Amino acid sequence: MAKKFVKISLAVKFRLLIGIAAVGIILAALVFPWIVMELAAEQQVRHHGEEVARLAQNRWDREHGHSSDVLTDMAELFALDDLSGVRTGPRFVTIKASAALDPIAQKAVRAFQQNLKQDLVVFSGEDEQDEGTHRLFRRIRTEPRCMECHRAPTGDVVRLQPGEFVGMIDLTLPPPPTPKWLPTVRLAFATGGLVAGLLAFILFAAITQRLVLRPVRILRDIADRVADGDLSIRSTLDSGDELQHLGDSFNSMLSSIGSQTNRLRAANRALDLKLGELSEANVALFEANKVKAEFLANISHELRTPLNSIIGFADLLADASDDRIRRYGQNISSSSKSLLAMINDLLDLAKIEGGKTTVRLDKVSVSGTCQTLVTLIQPLADQKQLSVRLDLAEDLPIITTDGGKLQQILYNLLSNAVKFTPANGGITVTAGLHKPQIVSIVVADTGPGISEAEQNRIFEKFYQADSTLAKQSTGTGLGLAIAKELANLLGGRLTVASSPGAGATFTLTLPVDPKPANGADAADSTDSDPR
């Protein structure tokens, strides 16, 4: 589940932080005098309790020296009603009666026993019935004059030692009356803190608005206008701080972007001009190529009729009784047939490039086609003492293709293999399933091979490999170009793999059932290396 974030503006964040900081600072400044005032009030209560306890002890000392019943009264509680400001007590408590003391008095006894030098203990707010009361306990020690009566165990007189803790005075003081000036002081504290916080907030907000928020808003507006495409805007901040430096950097960035934009526009205009020139040149080249193709088609068609006539008359001369005339007739016939083959190739290529070649799909047996062409090329191979081996896979399917164009491709490959393979060499024709729904036909020879630099050019028109056998052989340089174009028309692919001195291997891949839209893509997905 994506987290949802609440967007808070920078101004709101500053106001919140400034308000919190102002309140915190003012509270911290008011806490100390408030604590001092409360401590002073508590100290006043403590001082009042000490005075009351001292007066009570002095009176007890006076009465204790003259009363004959005081020894029995030491185990009892008594009150002095004429002591002002005392709610209960003071009362005298002996240590022996500590078992009957309340928990607060017991805590006082333990405090006196733990600290022998402490004579006064004060407990504030520990009375469950009245949390505002203060209880004071003052230690009573034996003095030298007490030894007159308590020196020896005679009768019921208690035996005491000098300075011994014999009792304590218990005073319970009510909450001190609130001074009339205290509410006024507290109200003044609260009002002063509120006014100071409000003034601090307003002052800090104004300073932040002028020094931080306004420059940031200006830079944001500039960035928005730049995002809208206005590169002419510039920052005019003059605050002399980091925000001005940021604005200057922003201006430098805009200047750089403007310069780069101008250069890009100039480059785009130049590219547009070049593109226009290239488009015009492309149109001119297309028209020239079209005229060339039409010219080749027309001239080839016009030349075929007289060439056929020349070949016919040359064949008649070949039957003459005169050896010289018969030899001339054979030369004329051979040259005319070569010229006719070239014209036929030019005519086929012109039709392919002009898009006038039609593909007639039919069920074709790859095995039968390969066997027919090997039988057809065998006499030419026998003249050079070449071995021709045919290797057909048993699972070769019947494919859908143009049988005539397939034969033309394979005949071109086989005739080239015979032409460029030296005597006593070998030619191998292999056919099989290269991939599911893809048939491959491989024609390999033991000729001189083709260098890597020439492998990309042998499919060009009128190009012949630079080798001794190529120079000795006659050809137009159009056979492989036509075979390549025909393979593409059939939705297949024609590739070559070779190296100098290791022969050449041509691989034709064809789909078993070509699709009109993606048949070529299916064939192009095959590997080009048959090895």
UniProtKB/TrEMBL annotation:
<feature type="transmembrane region" description="Helical">
    <location>
        <begin position="187"/>
        <end position="207"/>
    </location>
</feature>
<dbReference type="GO" id="GO:0016020">
    <property type="term" value="C:membrane"/>
</dbReference>
<feature type="domain" description="Histidine kinase">
    <location>
        <begin position="298"/>
        <end position="514"/>
    </location>
</feature>
<dbReference type="Pfam" id="PF00672">
    <property type="entry name" value="HAMP"/>
</dbReference>
<feature type="domain" description="HAMP">
    <location>
        <begin position="210"/>
        <end position="262"/>
    </location>
</feature>
<dbReference type="InterPro" id="IPR004358">
    <property type="entry name" value="Sig_transdc_His_kin-like_C"/>
</dbReference>
<keyword id="KW-0418">Kinase</keyword>
<dbReference type="Pfam" id="PF02518">
    <property type="entry name" value="HATPase_c"/>
</dbReference>
<keyword id="KW-0472">Membrane</keyword>
<keyword id="KW-0808">Transferase</keyword>
<dbReference type="InterPro" id="IPR003660">
    <property type="entry name" value="HAMP_dom"/>
</dbReference>
<feature type="region of interest" description="Disordered">
    <location>
        <begin position="508"/>
        <end position="531"/>
    </location>
</feature>
<protein>
    <recommendedName>
        <fullName>histidine kinase</fullName>
        <ecNumber>2.7.13.3</ecNumber>
    </recommendedName>
</protein>
<dbReference type="InterPro" id="IPR036097">
    <property type="entry name" value="HisK_dim/P_sf"/>
</dbReference>
<feature type="transmembrane region" description="Helical">
    <location>
        <begin position="12"/>
        <end position="36"/>
    </location>
</feature>
<dbReference type="Pfam" id="PF00512">
    <property type="entry name" value="HisKA"/>
</dbReference>
<dbReference type="InterPro" id="IPR005467">
    <property type="entry name" value="His_kinase_dom"/>
</dbReference>
<dbReference type="InterPro" id="IPR003661">
    <property type="entry name" value="HisK_dim/P_dom"/>
</dbReference>
<dbReference type="InterPro" id="IPR003594">
    <property type="entry name" value="HATPase_dom"/>
</dbReference>
<dbReference type="InterPro" id="IPR050736">
    <property type="entry name" value="Sensor_HK_Regulatory"/>
</dbReference>
<keyword id="KW-0902">Two-component regulatory system</keyword>
<keyword id="KW-0597">Phosphoprotein</keyword>
<keyword id="KW-0812">Transmembrane</keyword>
<dbReference type="GO" id="GO:0000155">
    <property type="term" value="F:phosphorelay sensor kinase activity"/>
</dbReference>
<dbReference type="InterPro" id="IPR036890">
    <property type="entry name" value="HATPase_C_sf"/>
</dbReference>
<keyword id="KW-1133">Transmembrane helix</keyword>
